[in-house]
Amino acid sequence: MNKKALAILMRARMRPNHLTNFALSPISNELNQILSNSHGNRSGENGEHHAMEHGKETLNHQRSFEVVRESMHSVISMNKTEVGDSVLNEFLEGYCSLSFENRRKLLLTLAKEYDLNRAQVRELIKQYLGLQPPGSEAQSGGVADEGFLSTFYRIERNLRHSLKPVYETLFERLNTHPEGLKFLTIIRADILSILTEGNIASLRALDSYLKEKLTTWLSPAALELHQITWDDPASLLEKIVFYEAVHPISNLIDLKRRLGVGRRCFGYFHSAIPREPLIFIEVALLKNIAETIQEVLWDNPPIAESEATCALFYSISSTQPGLAGINLGKFLIKRVITLVKIDMPHISVFATLSPIPGFMQWLLSKLASQSKLAKAEDISRSPADRSGLTFYENILEPEEERALIDSSGDLASGKSGMEIMLNLLTPTTHEWTNSDKLLSALKPPLMRLCARYLLQEKKRGKALDSVANFHLQNGAMVQRINWMADQSEKGLNQSAGIMVNYVYRPENIEEYAQLYFSKGHIHSSYDVKRYIQPVLENESKDSLL
């Protein structure tokens, strides 16, 4: 094993799980790394401190809330020329020292006490509304006087300034710090974590403003696209292993394969966070669109790149929780398509092999609610009575229900096909996957319901599934759904092993994205539509009556 492989392996083994104790201290490790970078290789503490009792350790290592609050106030209130790295470092270090509860308290203070001055805004609006508009009859000759217009310009300028919250100063000054952009993403990760506990209006406004700032600072023009290869530093490859969110990298052989012949990995980097990608995408060069993830990850050997006609995007991972909701993936996919088309003109198909993370959650909830309703109304044995119920829906076709009842055997019981299906799919042991008879009985309803979930189940007019919404808003179409495409535990838990191919047609990307954005329209192939075509036809007939 070479030094690079050893370094990656050792670091990966030694690095703590980034999700551990997230609720209590979601960003402590990253903050400590930032402070280490800002102050150089400063170890700061010797082994004796680890032997101190908890009270002394807290006293030595954790600043009081008031001290950090004063530090934050200094960053905001000082003249621009007075705010140097030392002042910003003091705030970064202080924030790092706080417990999560005190960080929560500090961010709420920032959101409420450093918001905009609404009394000033109201006064300026009152002044503005009291002026006669330029060109009104009150002005002689109908010609606006320059002196009169200057009053408008002055009030408008003051109004624009007063509508900016005071905390904007903190964000902009932190962004000038060498590690400031990374630190701001960490602050936003904390804000998002707090908002999961409850919707606090002032904190939501703070998050929205910081998100807008980060979106501006991370515009595509400020990002560098880099192809990640086996020749990159071990520290970078380690991050690829660590942050891969879709299909975990199992070992060094797996990593080398994903970066080798017939594969590509591209990442977006920013100069202020040079040592890690903000987001990265993994690409397989294939003859045809893959139907299973096993074809991509396990099949050997890869085809010659000259024979490939399809670039398959099989994993896209964000490395910064604080950038949630900022769609860097849209620009990354477009850039990669452009680059691949230039480098490999023989590639004509750009597709994905994507998970469907919300399908089983939606399906099990649907089965449970409908089965419960059926029991409450005592209609499970009386199909004729079901039509009279407003909220009842048997999501199974008659032949699907018969097949499930005939095939369930000892694995699941129930009075109806839906109840049997619920009892089969709920256990995490997935015993149904070991029975050819059950697989045959479950495939038709699962594939049909999956198509319905992707094409028809929506939230605020957009696809309910988060991954579907991501690709559709980027201009993709739903091309194909694949049975037993991911038989890992994660794949079975999320979507009963079903995966979906989205296709990006360069000539249609903007059109599809616009139609989805404006009307919620989802483009799909006939192969997908046919699963729900009878439903669509019935809806069309009903609309004509």
TrEMBL record:
- Malonyl-CoA decarboxylase N-terminal domain: residues covered: 155-217
InterPro entries, per database record: Malonyl_CoA_deC, Malonyl_CoA_deC_C, Malonyl_CoA_deC_C_sf, MCD_N, MCD_N_sf
Q: Where does the Malonyl-CoA decarboxylase C-terminal domain start and stop, copy by copy?
A: 222-504
Query: Cellular component terms, GO, for this chain's entry?
Result: mitochondrial matrix; peroxisomal matrix
Q: Which Gene3D superfamilies match?
A: Malonyl-CoA decarboxylase, catalytic domain, Malonyl-CoA decarboxylase, oligemerization domain
Molecular-function GO term, any one: malonyl-CoA decarboxylase activity
Q: Where is the signal peptide?
A: none
Specify the superkingdom: Eukaryota
**What Pfam families does the record point to?**
MCD, MCD_N
GO terms for biological process?
acetyl-CoA biosynthetic process; fatty acid biosynthetic process; malonyl-CoA catabolic process
This chain belongs to the protein called: Malonyl-CoA decarboxylase C-terminal domain-containing protein
Q: From what organism does this protein derive?
A: Gossypium darwinii
